[in-house]
Amino acid sequence: MSTDRDEAAGGDARNARGPDEHEPDRARKVRLDELPSATPRQGVTRRRLLGQRIELIAYRYEPGTVFPRHAHAAEQMTIVQSGVLVFAFDEGEMRLEAGEAVTIPGGVPHGAHVPEDAAGPTETLNVFTPVREAPPG
After folding, report:
1. Do residues 86 and 94 lie in contact, with contact meaning Cβ atoms separated by under 8 Å?
2. Cβ distance 121 to 61 under 8 Å?
3. Would you give the distance in Å from CA 119 to the centre of its chain?
4. Of the candidates 76, 8, 43, 11, the residue with the CA atom closest to the CA atom of residue 19
């Protein structure tokens, strides 16, 4: 339940503006698990939250999921909350486990996958700046 203080700060995720929108002059509190989810490809679920110049995406990847190689102008930070995620860069692979993070400069080509033999799903928080037109499909 939201308090008056939460409401005054734009705290209710069910306010008139959509969860992908922001109000430049107000703080806003949301629950990540209440953001709309999308399934850009089999085995991947994402929830997206936008600020004025920053974007947060919470991803959940099933074992064996592959996120194809891509690049974007935005700088990226990925924090693995649970499971394991293996990034592929021109220089080679980088394995991240729960509690580890990587920063990826804008324009650097990368892809990622969750090993097929992973014990369970992998969950990450991904921060991008500036906000991208659309997240990769």
Report:
1. yes
2. yes
3. 21
4. 11
For the whole model, what pTM was predicted?
0.81
Could you tell me which of 35, 42, 56, 67 has the C-alpha nearest to residue 136? 67
- Tens of pLDDT, residue by residue over 31-82, are 999 999 999 999 999 999 999 999 999 999 999 999 999 999 999 999 999 9
The answer to whether the beta carbons of residues 88 and 69 sit under 8 Å apart is yes
DSSP notation for the chain = ---HHHHHTT--TTSSS-TT---TTS-----GGGS-EEEEETTEEEEEEE-SS-EEEEEEE-TT-EEEEE--SSEEEEEEEESEEEEEETTEEEEEETT-EEEE-TT--EEEE--TT-SS-EEEEEEEESPPSS---
pLDDT per position as a tens digit, 70-90? 999 999 999 999 999 999 999
